[in-house]
Amino acid sequence: MKNNTGASEFILLGVTSTPELQITLFLVFTLIYLVTLAGNLGMMTLILLDSRLHIPMYFFLSNLSLVDFGSSSTVTPKVMAGLLTGNNVISYNACASQMFFFVFFATVDSYLLASMAYDRYAGVCKPLHYSTIMTRTVCTRLVLGCYVIGLLTASVQTGDTFCLSYCVSKVVHHFFCDIPAVRILACSNEHSSELILVLLSSFHIVFALLIILISYLYLLITVLKMHSGEGYQKALSTCAAHLLAVSTFYGTVTIMHLKPSSSHSMDTDKFTSVFYTMVIPMLNPVVYSLRNQEVKNAFKKVVQKAKCSLG
């Protein structure tokens, strides 16, 4: 990537400048990261090992776990290292790479949630045609489409950001190279460039969210027409975890990225960013496992096999 700044590095301000909090935050973030790794890698392993989970819903969920693992690993280790050593310097190329992968995983995450909403719509509203609607080919194409859109979006937004000139300040008022925090340092005319960024971010958020809302509108209509109490409960149980994941993800992303950089409060952004870069990737596998009996059964099966092999 071309360096228009003449600089070889940026300085991240980190989560906090209070020395007394750094060790505490390091321990907290380490615990969060370990739970994130265990939860997401564990979810992928369960889905891989249990043939009963080889259905579209869990295919999407395994990819969501992979993306959450990648998203957390893009940001959290650098934050932990900064808190432990006090070294918050990040090279120009490392900053660009971190921004690229963060945007990539965030975009893929949003479209995977939209794909999962469509899958839930097909499962509840079209149960008799579900197997012909959500074929392996369709699911594979949906997931590949999510990754392609993520790759293109990350390339455009990162390239657009690092084409600007950064000629004075090297201090990024954030704990990672988020786009608004880096772009605010630019000394070149960025109005048209920022407009492209906002429009692109808005399109992805609105489009994916529109798919989710339409899917759940049809799903809600179908559920309200159900006369069976058992079917009603099953439909709600199936969708509850996904709705929670959608609410937390889109709530924080909308707050962060549908505002011009000039209106950003960096302290507020840090708090919000901790939530969607560290907490949400940790919560998703926990939410899906607690709300899903099939995942619980798969986990018990694995544990029983492990006990038998050890015994």
From TrEMBL:
<feature type="transmembrane region" description="Helical">
    <location>
        <begin position="235"/>
        <end position="253"/>
    </location>
</feature>
<dbReference type="GO" id="GO:0005886">
    <property type="term" value="C:plasma membrane"/>
</dbReference>
<keyword id="KW-1133">Transmembrane helix</keyword>
<keyword id="KW-0716">Sensory transduction</keyword>
<dbReference type="GO" id="GO:0004930">
    <property type="term" value="F:G protein-coupled receptor activity"/>
</dbReference>
<dbReference type="GO" id="GO:0004984">
    <property type="term" value="F:olfactory receptor activity"/>
</dbReference>
<dbReference type="Pfam" id="PF13853">
    <property type="entry name" value="7tm_4"/>
</dbReference>
<feature type="transmembrane region" description="Helical">
    <location>
        <begin position="23"/>
        <end position="49"/>
    </location>
</feature>
<keyword id="KW-0325">Glycoprotein</keyword>
<protein>
    <recommendedName>
        <fullName>Olfactory receptor</fullName>
    </recommendedName>
</protein>
<feature type="transmembrane region" description="Helical">
    <location>
        <begin position="195"/>
        <end position="223"/>
    </location>
</feature>
<dbReference type="InterPro" id="IPR017452">
    <property type="entry name" value="GPCR_Rhodpsn_7TM"/>
</dbReference>
<keyword id="KW-0807">Transducer</keyword>
<dbReference type="InterPro" id="IPR000276">
    <property type="entry name" value="GPCR_Rhodpsn"/>
</dbReference>
<keyword id="KW-0812">Transmembrane</keyword>
<feature type="transmembrane region" description="Helical">
    <location>
        <begin position="138"/>
        <end position="156"/>
    </location>
</feature>
<feature type="transmembrane region" description="Helical">
    <location>
        <begin position="273"/>
        <end position="290"/>
    </location>
</feature>
<comment type="function">
    <text>Odorant receptor.</text>
</comment>
<dbReference type="InterPro" id="IPR000725">
    <property type="entry name" value="Olfact_rcpt"/>
</dbReference>
<comment type="similarity">
    <text>Belongs to the G-protein coupled receptor 1 family.</text>
</comment>
<feature type="domain" description="G-protein coupled receptors family 1 profile">
    <location>
        <begin position="39"/>
        <end position="288"/>
    </location>
</feature>
<keyword id="KW-0297">G-protein coupled receptor</keyword>
<keyword id="KW-0675">Receptor</keyword>
<keyword id="KW-0472">Membrane</keyword>
<keyword id="KW-0552">Olfaction</keyword>
<keyword id="KW-1003">Cell membrane</keyword>
<feature type="transmembrane region" description="Helical">
    <location>
        <begin position="96"/>
        <end position="118"/>
    </location>
</feature>
